Amino acid sequence: MDIPIDFWKLAAGLSIFLYGMFLLEDSVRIMSGKAFRQMIRFYTNGRLRSIGSGALITAILQSSSAVSLMVLAFVGAGVMTMENGIGVMMGANIGTTLTAWIVAAFGFKIKISSMAFPFIACSGLIAIIINPSSKIYQASRLLIGFGFLLLGLDYMKTSVEAYTQYVDLTALAGYGIWLYLLFGILMTAIMQASAASIAIILTGLNSGLINFEIAAAMVIGANIGTTVTVLLGAVGGMPIKKRVGTSHLFFNVVTGVVAFISLGPLTHVVELFFDTSANAVMGLALFHSLFNLIGAVIFLPFIGYMSRVLLRVFPERKAVLTVYLNNTPTEVLDAATSSLRKETLHLFEECQFYALKTFGIDDKLVFDHTLPFQKNLGRRNTLRDFYENAKLLHGEIIEFYAKLLNAKLEEEEAKALERMIYASRNIMNSMKNVKGLRHDMEEFDSSENKHLNRQYRLFRRRLIGLYHSINSFFDMMGDHQEQYRILLRTVIHIEQQDAQFLSTVMELAAAKDIDEREISSLLMANRLFSQSCRLQVFALKDLLLRKEEIKEFDHAMEMKELLDEEHGR
Q: Distances from the Cα of 523 to the Cαs of 196, 312, 416, 423, 517, in angstroms?
């Protein structure tokens, strides 16, 4: 059976409308994303202000989902309270109704295509000419998006008008108005775009395909269906995401139920401002804003209570990152010092694991046991998650150290603790360097230049060699002099490899086997890598060598620096 051309016109109109919405949202986000984030952060202190800010920012961005993501980020970071986060989400529901006002005011009052084509034509030409990094380019994208929005609406409008003589949706009213409510929920849940649903409903209302009561029920349904996007993002996510998603669902469902029950009275209120028989689309836009505003008023006194309930339903399950510090009282100094040293060594092993995974090396080549992060957090954690967990563990080590400072410490005890903290900082700095290497390593590995591939493999061999030296260090536990010699040999080997690498890069550059950008990338990567290796060795020195060996080691490093300076002269 042939599909009517009007169906394709409707589908094309919907696609163009959605793409226009995307361009609008994306261009505004790029042009003033930081400003909006700052506004949310600084102007959401208090329930009324949070609702007002949420409404204003969503009205400008025209994307409640974008505001939702910012709310998730700020609440998760502790910058915004849960109560204010819920307030912003409620305000976002009010702000998103501006779409209905735009469509109602401009979409059906004028010949849409006469406005859409100039927007697309002029802005499209500007976008081709202007530098993509400029604000003018983003402004032209915004205007193109507005033009596409109008053009898509025009296509939907004319295609729906063609169906009005064949289809009568009002015939389904015999099954109850609730059927249209469900239709609105399903339509928005499937498309995951309430703006598109509202535009379709307004188009149907304008063309006479549906009456005002049916359109109002479908708009209520669209308001409920829009929660699916946030819920999908919350499923299986952090507790904070589940709280925000649930609050959004609860607010929209309760608001929808109240609006559906009060459909008659609300329609009468709308008729005080607009004649729904002559100007139904403006009346529907008012209805959409009105019931969301009523919902915000109803929920305003209960935001605090809702927040407390959600905190109980979705408690924060903090991952246990420490292995030794949790059950060690700081009052027993010897035990606390021993636990702090062991925990810092645990962080050191996690640093090694992170480096191995960054370089795509099987951890079994270095470790014969499962590390705590793998055991407690699972293997599905990404490298980014792993790094964040390491930062949290480092923070707990520093916090435990701060508690120990309150005790009456001997000078030697205080210095020993201080060396452990130096070690912990060096470990984290080493991880940070490895993190900075990730992009370069991926680039070297996938490069078409065989010399870059070879250097990538060389970095991997250097890392495995370092960790084999470190394993031999641990095999000599108790023999501090031999451990000192192993660490000193390891540092000398790191310096020799560093010098050899620089010499190789210079030879490749002279032979024109690598270009200027590749030279810079290799030198930067080598600097980060060598420094990361040094920091790990220095961490072991501060953690496990005795005071005498540490002095010898530091003296040897000072002599080496003097010799390097002399050689440089």
A: 51, 52, 36, 26, 10
Question: What are the structure tokens assigned to 514, written together?
Answer: 């690598």
CA distances from 217 to 189, 208, 209, 420, 474 (A): 15, 16, 14, 66, 71
- Taking only the tens place, the pLDDT of each residue in 423-460 is 999 999 999 999 999 989 988 988 889 999 999 999 99
**Closest Cα partner for 392 from 329, 345, 438, 347?**
347
What value, to the nearest 5°, has the Cα angle with vertex 83 and ends 81 and 84? 70
Interval 3-18: pLDDT, tens: 556 667 767 877 877 7
The DSSP string of 422-442 is: HHHHHHHHHHHHHHHHHHHHH
Output phi, psi for 43, to 5 deg.
-115, 30
Percent helix / strand / coil, the chain, rounded to 5? 80, 0, 20
- pTM for the structure as a whole: 0.55
Q: Which of 494, 481, 466, 474 is nearest to 560 (CA)?
A: 494
Assigned token pair, 143? 């205007």
Nearest alpha carbon to residue 95 among 53, 153, 42, 48: 53
Q: Going by C-beta distance under 8 Å and a sequence separation of 6 or more, which residues neighbour residue 357?
A: 363, 383, 386
Alpha helices for 164-238 (secondary structure H): 178-191, 194-207, 212-225, 227-234
Confirm if 148 and 120 have CB atoms less than 8 A apart.
yes
